[in-house]
Every structure is written in C-alpha cells, then in structure tokens.
Amino acid sequence: MTRKLLSGDEAVARGAWEAGCRVAAAYPGTPSTEILEAISTYKDIYSEWSTNEKVALEVALGASISGARALAAMKHVGLNVAADPFFSAAYIGALGGFVIVTADDPGLHSSQNEQDNRFYGLMARVPVLCPSNSQECRDYTMRAFAISEEFDLPVLIRLTTRVAHSSGIVEVGERTEVPLKPYEKKVTKNAILPAFAKVRHVDLEKRIDRVAALSLQDEFNRIEPGSVDLGIISDGVCYHYAREVYPDASFLKLGMVWPFPGETVRRFAATVKELLVVEEVDPFIELQVRALGLKVTGKDRLPRTNEMSQRALRLSMGLPAEKAEPETGVTARPPALCPGCPHTGIYFALQNQKAFIGGDIGCYTLGVMPPHSGMDTCVDMGASITVAHGTDKALGATDQRPHVAIIGDSTFFHSGVTGLINTVYNKSNVITIISDNRTTGMTGHQNHPGTGQTLMGSFGTIIKPEEIAKACGVKTVVVVDPYKVKETRKVVRELLAKKEPAVIVNRRACALHIRLHNPPFKVDPEKCDGCKTCIRLGCPALSFDNGKAHITATTCVGCGMCADVCPEGAISASPKSNVQSPKSSAGSPS
Amino acid sequence: MNILVCGVGGQGVLLFSDIISNLALRNGLDVKKSEVHGLAQRGGSVTSHIRFGPKVYSPLIEEGTADAVVAFERLEALRYVHFLCPSGRLFYDSHRIDPLPVSIGTAERVPDDQIEARLAARAPRRQMVPAFKTALELGNVRVQNTVMLGAVSSCLGFPDESIKQSLTELVKPAARELNLKAFAVGQAISACP
Ligand code: SF4
Ligand code: SF4
C-alpha cells in the first residue's frame, strides 16, 4: 500500500481506475471537474468531456450495457440535466458496474443553488453512497462498482464541495483488470418500452430490497459507541464536524444513506438517551429516522441552508464557541472578469443599450455585476436563449427594447443549440451573442467541440458556432473581435437597432488560458481628462485616483482594450512594447 | 496545527498550501487541506485551510482556533484574522490589491493605517512580510508565495531540507532555481513573531 495526498475528486478517479473502470464521461462543473481530469491521466480508461451531463450519463450507460465498468461524473445541477436517463437507468440496471458521481455544493461556492441530490437516489430508486473523506472516496467508488454488478443497479455517489475539494491521505493499491462481461441482446431489459418497463419496475423494487439487506450488515453504516447520553447520526463531511464538537458522544456514521438502514438506526437509537442528526442542506436522514417513529433533534435546531461547520453546529446547539466575530466593514472582494478577458469587450459594447439580456452560466455570468450590469436573468445552462425567446414572445410587440441572449461557446454546445433552433422555428427576434473564448473558461479551461481537442489529447474537427447558427437557419451571422471594442460596439448597436434575429459570435481566446502577457499599457496623465470611459471596462488593472485613470503594471496583460475605448487617446502601449492597440476600422466615439 | 492561508485569486495560495500539506505527509502526520475553487479564483478572495497532526477529523479550521494565518494581501488579512487563536501568529503581506468595487469607485478603500491598527488589536503576534515587493525585485511577482513560505518556514516545525525538497518537487523544473532563491530571501526576512 502506498500513501498519497489526494483530493476527494482525485480519490474517486483513483478508485475507478483500481476497480477496472474502462469508460468515464463528464461535463465539467465545480466541484466535480477534477474527477475526469484525474481519470484522464490513467490511460487504461477511455475518458471524454461530453457535450453535456445527459450525454455523459448515456455514454456511461451504453458502456455498462455492453459489459464494461463505467462512470459518469457531474455537479449537482448537472444531474438535473441527466435526470431523464438516470431514472431509466435504474430500470435497465447494470451489466458492467455503473457508477454516477454527483458533487453537490452546499454553501454555493460556485453554483446557482444548493440542492441535495441524496433525494435523487430515493426518487429514482438508486443506492446512494456518501463518502466523508478522500480515503472513503477511493474505497466507496471501488465498492460501488461491485455493488452495481452484484445487484444489477446503477450506484450514485454523493460528494459535497468539502469532500471533493479537500485533500487527505489515501492508501491506494493497483489496478485490477475486470474482464468485459459478455454482452447479450436483452430487449426486455435494455429497451424500456411500456410493456417491458412495467416488468422492470417490479424487478427494480426486488433489487432494491436486496441492497437494503446489504445496508444493514455492511461496513458502510458503522456504530461507534460512546457516551449513552447522546447518539449522533451523520453522513459525509458532517460526521467529522460532529466528531470534533462532540468527542464523547456515540455515533452512527452512515456511508449508505439509501436504501435507508432502518434496523441499524433502531438498534443504535435503543442504546442512547437522545438522538441528533447532523447533515448538510436538507433533512434527508432526519425524515427517514422520523418515519421510523423515533424522536430526534435535527433541522429544528440546525441550519437548513449553507454549509455545516464545527462553529455552525456549536452555535445552533447552544454550545460555547471561541469569541471570533469577523471584522466588520471589510470591502467585499467579488470575483471579476480577468484582465484582458474578451468578455469585457462584448459587455462594454452592450452597456447602455436598453436591451433585455438573458444571461447564461460561465465566466461571463460575472458580467451581471457593475460596471457592466450586463444581464437581466440567469437560470441554468442554455436558458439565455430560451428565456429571451419567452420575453420576446410575451413583450415583443409592445416592448421597445431588443431581446438579447448572451451565452458562452461551451454552454452553447451544452444546451444552447436546441434553444437557437427553437428561436428560428418559432420566429422570434432574439439576438444571440455567442461569446466564444475557445475554451470552457470558468471550470479551468477544458476543451470542447469548438476546440477540436479531446480530453485524451487527440485533435480533430473544429465545430464552429457560426456554422451551426447558419445551419439552424439564422440569416444574419456576424463574427467580431471583442478586443476591437469600438468596432464590436458598432456592430452590436446596428444589429440591436434592427430587432431582427441575428447571431453575433465574438471570438478571442480566454486571456487566462493563453496566458496573455504583453507589456503593460500606460495612461498619459496629461491627456487623461478623467472621463472614466476606460473604467467602465471593469478591467481589474484599471483604477481611478485623483481624477485620473491609472493602470497597475503588474496586473495589466496588455490586451489594449482600454486604449481602444479611450476617447482622448490617453492610453498607449509602453514604449518597450511591440504590441499595437487594436485599431478600430469603423468606430465612432460615444 | 491549523494554518489558514488567504489571498486573492492568482497569487499562488493553492501552491503554497500544497507544499505545506505535502510536507506534513512526508513527515508521517495526518493532514487535511480544504480550498475553494471555481468562481472564487477570478480575482476573488481565496482561502485554503491546512490542518496536520496525529489525527485530523474536519478539513475546516474553526474560527478562533488557527495557529497561524498567512495572508498574501492586506485586506484579506483583515477579512480572516478572526480565525486566529489568541496566541496565534499572523503573517501578512502589506501589498494591496483593491477589490473591483473600489477601483471602479462604488466602494471606499479601507485606509492602510486603519487596517494596521485593527490587525494590531487582534493579532499581538504578527509579522509583516514584504513578499510581493521582494518577488518583484527578484524579477517575478509569481514567486511571492515562495518568499512567504521562506518567511513562515521557521514556525512550521519541519526541517529546512524537507521544506526545500517539497518546494522543488512541486514547482516546475524551469522555475526551481528562482524559487529556491526566493525561499532563501524569505527566510532572511523573518523570524517567528
Ligand atoms: S478565465 Fe478567461 S474567460 Fe474567464 S474571466 Fe478570465 S479571461 Fe475571462
Ligand atoms: S491593456 Fe488595458 S484593458 Fe487590457 S489588461 Fe491592460 S489595463 Fe486592462
């Protein structure tokens, strides 16, 4: 056995590799992204970035049906996208072990909600394992493959941010090759038409009952006896918080939270005077403990929102805690678009346009903040186009504003295309802006169909959003360079004024991805008249002091956008630089 | 031992904490490290919790119990100083990076002398480390984190050689020499407060 320091995500990848997994698919999403990144380093596993989570789950399902061990990974909201095949997969079951990992994000470190995906297991009738640290991430993943094959069921592993992104010591082993299970055509199992599915549903209940028996004896649900005064039931990382706050209590640590090990809970409850359930987000365990008719303290005292922590537990249970109030009046430091970010240019072009702007999920979501205030809505992946279509249909005839959607390239491939087809088919006047920075910026620069490069490193066809748009039947399709801010603004204003359907692709590589670092630009204080036009770009390298703009040399990456927008010509490349500020061929100052 | 590291996205907080957790692993201790990824890296506030010892449960440090807070930026020091235990040590870079609301003029800057005074009140054992300035002088702002590592190294309780080994293992070969130099300069700047 070797000891390694691994994050929960890396440990899941390690467990999959050791368990003989052959196919793994995912769409990147914090905090799940690193699972596939780590898997891609093991060459025995075919791995891919799928265009979205539904695709990823179906790819892994196909592999499992054909007899190979397979894994699909996604963040919590990704399972919503993949929910359709997820429910059906439970009916179909698994020939080769089939593991689905959902990484939930309590505390919304980087998400649009904090849903609790343990409920998905209950609803779809799929076993749910909740590892509490990196070692369990590796161990449970290996066990999940075995359980999946033994009981002919997919298995859901639920991580949370603190499990996925915390590192701990993991004892690891070597890979065991698991031969392909011989594929047999079985339409009554793998084709869930109504007549077959009826039978499969009955079968699913039987399979689940058998797993329920396992959850009672299994090593997953462990009683750790302590004082009889208090018994704590907990899962995931909450177990560790509770262990620190209540070192003397008795514990029932749940690793398999569904099927629910009711008998184990009864047995445990009989040994203690009081029961406390410590869990994050929803009362998943608590509801089931109550359903057994047991009296328990849970969400009546503990928070239902945000992450659990030692302190949150102490404060809500009225236990003494260190005096540690945070300092007040410390200016917030929200994330911002990077210096040189090409999204900056398009948001600048959209400023003061009196448009309705449907937004989407990615780095460019940061354009919702001042100085851009560049979107009215943000719902989920792909909703920019469809929501703008809805507002256009509802208000179009009476509304003077153009209805605009702004979506990134990876998001467009994920679920923008169907929305775009819908706008053409149903004749709306939405102007769709595809902010194409040649990568999946937000999650750390994963490739996608528009880059032509796969997770396993091969290079092939590049799929261009403007060609898709044309093929969808959009008549006006324009490609602009967002670094040429004035020109971009001119194009955007012209198209917005027409209020006709159009697609604008603004293309420039993500500044962080290509590590743009040209020599810094400079402000000539003689020429700067303090109009603050450049400040409106929202570039973190630009600030305003004593009535003049100022560029922080160590932050500026020399993209030249500020020079392009400055009406006084006060900003220029430093003399040492061989970079020219982008010249606008057709620009008019505002 | 609980160490909270904080700074601004892009300052090398994560590499810094990787090096320290690796050290703990090498030296036979249990270790857990927890950090924030994703959105927070886009110039936002970034933290990393590192805990090591004979047995570690939670990956999160509880407020008021950190043995050390290492801050790569002044305002971030103020934001997280409440994590320190009463006898804890604060290492902080006086370098200032204005949050976007300050540079676009929608929020006031907290004055430097006010930050100083408030830090002094909360952290009697503290050491200012001009890591950013030093890194700039060494020719690359990206070694700010290594200068800081040198500065805190004597408080970590690990042998020097072991720290250097962990450092060389985790930085790219091309950057090794500069990093070792930055580490040495950092060591010279500071002693344990
Ligand atoms: S990572 Fe790329 S796309 Fe995201 S904000 Fe930075 S420059 Fe823009
Ligand atoms: S050139 Fe201007 S816009 Fe570009 S990074 Fe530097 S200051 Fe920001």
From TrEMBL, chain A:
Q: Which residues form the 4Fe-4S ferredoxin-type domain?
A: 519-540, 547-576
Per its UniProt record, the required cofactor names are: [4Fe-4S] cluster
Q: Give binding positions for [4Fe-4S] cluster 1.
A: C528, C531, C534, C566
- Provide the catalytic activity annotation: indole-3-pyruvate + 2 oxidized [2Fe-2S]-[ferredoxin] + CoA = (indol-3-yl)acetyl-CoA + 2 reduced [2Fe-2S]-[ferredoxin] + CO2 + H(+)
Cite the SUPFAM superfamilies for this sequence: Thiamin diphosphate-binding fold (THDP-binding), TK C-terminal domain-like
Record keywords, A-Z:
4Fe-4S, Electron transport, Iron, Iron-sulfur, Metal-binding, Oxidoreductase, Transport
Question: Enzyme group, top EC level?
Answer: oxidoreductase
Q: Which GO terms describe its molecular function?
A: 4 iron, 4 sulfur cluster binding; indolepyruvate ferredoxin oxidoreductase activity; metal ion binding; thiamine pyrophosphate binding
Binding of [4Fe-4S] cluster 2, residues: C539, C556, C559, C562
Subunit details = Heterodimer of the IorA and IorB subunits.
Q: What function does this protein fulfil?
A: Catalyzes the ferredoxin-dependent oxidative decarboxylation of arylpyruvates.
The name under which this protein is listed is Indolepyruvate oxidoreductase subunit IorA
Which organism's genome codes for this protein? candidate division WOR-3 bacterium
Q: Which gene carries the instructions for this protein?
A: iorA
UniProtKB/TrEMBL annotation, chain B:
SUPFAM superfamilies listed in its UniProt record = Pyruvate-ferredoxin oxidoreductase, PFOR, domain III
Keywords noted in UniProt: Oxidoreductase
Where is the Pyruvate/ketoisovalerate oxidoreductase catalytic domain positioned along the sequence? 9-186
Gene Ontology molecular function terms on file? oxidoreductase activity, acting on the aldehyde or oxo group of donors
Looking up Gene3D superfamilies in the UniProt record yields: Pyruvate-ferredoxin oxidoreductase, PFOR, domain III
At the top level, the lineage of the source is Bacteria
Asked whether the UniProt record includes Transmembrane among its keywords, one would answer no
**Pfam families membership:** POR
- Reply yes or no: does the keyword Manganese apply: no
PANTHER family for this protein: INDOLEPYRUVATE OXIDOREDUCTASE SUBUNIT IORB
Kindly provide the name given to this protein in its UniProt entry.
Indolepyruvate oxidoreductase subunit beta
Organism whose genome encodes this protein = candidate division WOR-3 bacterium
